[in-house]
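Supplementary Methods, section 5.1.

A reviewer requested that the exact input to the structure prediction be made available. We therefore reproduce it here, unchanged from the version used in the analyses.
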Amino acid sequence: MTQEGNTPGLTEEQIQAQMIEAVGKQDWQAVKKLAAELDKLAKAEQAKAKAELEQKLAEVTAEVKKAIDKATAPLIDKGVLDGADGIWYAYDFGDGVSSCRVQKKAARAAGAGGSSGKSSYVADPRKSQDLLEIVGDAVMFAEDTTVTLAKEEHVMPAGTTLKEAYDYSTNGGWRNRVRMAILKAANKAQA
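The structure derived from this sequence is encoded token-by-token as follows.
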């Protein structure tokens, strides 16, 4: 009844019915084969759903790209972006934070390996100090948290506010981490 190759095209319910019958007969080989068929069916459904999602995302991507291209075309036409190498835009729906970066590769000085020290990256034009006046009392660390600053571990005590965290160190990596938390809190406060 349940020979190998006898189940193609069956629905999940039909395979389950055959499994119940095979269990009743204690035909464990058939149960094993039917379970494998159920697994194949589930994987095929997952693959189909993934392919449909990828197709939808490809369509949405094309639509978003078209909108961004339309928005940047006037800036390109006016020469605002002359000398830039590109525009990078990101919007994190989870945090509600967007960022945009217009970048120009720095020309190397003769014999030097460094850059001019200037950057055109502006994720959010608002100043951290201004945002701290609004959200500085918000808690950044709800519990004692170990952080690494300049290759040294520090413990931030529970209840450390954004303002306290910002003032704790001027280390660039640390300030960036705190700024991201400040922006997140400020965007939530505005929502």
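The chain has five helices and seven strands. These observations are discussed further in the main text.
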